[in-house]
Design brief:
Elements lengths: L4 E5 H4 L8 E8 L6 E11 H9 L11 H11 L2 H9 L9 H9 L7 H8 L5 H16 L7 H4 L4 H6 L2
Antiparallel strand pairs: 1-3, 2-3
Helix pairs in contact: 4-7, 5-7
The structure holds zinc ion (ZN).
């Protein structure tokens, strides 16, 4: 059994049962819906158990799980003004700390969400790189430009991740 743990909220865990779950953490985010979890609302599972339940479709998942869903979700969550700002930003790195941090937390990029697993499977191992790729590609998309640049081409498998959708 791997020691990696995943934290989800009670709502996403639903009516499942499993032997080795532990309830309650100090602080964190649900890797399935991005809500804050704390105290008795948090359920911590081993990665193996999480994967097993997830693959059987037994857990709710409200977070994007691939890049096109990320773009859809960004379209939904951002105002027109915010989209305009991202579209015209002189350097996408400027988003790394504020909005980038928000996305890394919200979308479980540090804590093993399904989306982060997709990235890892395609050679992108660090959450900072994941959020950078999402924001760069979203900026390109808003500008109707080809979804590529020097940074993204350092991750050759990201192209596969795009084609998958
Ligand atoms: Zn949840």
């Amino acid at each position: 059994m791997r020691k990696i743990k995943k934290t989800i909220c009670k709502e996403c865990f639903g009516n499942n049962e499993c032997e080795e779950l532990s309830i309650g953490v100090l602080k964190g985010f649900c890797v399935l819906c991005g809500n804050d979890v704390s105290g008795n609302n948090a359920i911590t599972l081993s990665s193996d158990t999480f994967d097993k339940l997830y693959e059987q479709g037994l857990l709710n998942n409200k977070l994007p799980t691939n890049l096109s869903q990320c773009f859809d979700e960004l379209d939904r969550m951002l105002s027109d003004n915010e989209k305009e700002d991202i579209k015209n930003i002189p350097n996408i790195c400027l988003l790394h700390h504020g909005f980038g941090t928000y996305l890394r937390n919200k979308w479980g990029l540090w804590t093993g969400s399904v989306l982060s697993k997709q990235f890892k499977d395609h050679g992108v191992t660090h959450p900072d790189s994941m959020s950078a790729i999402i924001l760069r590609l979203y900026n390109k998309k808003l500008n109707n430009k080809p979804l590529n640049d020097e940074y993204i081409s350092t991750y050759p498998n990201v192209a596969k991740l795009l084609k998958k959708e």
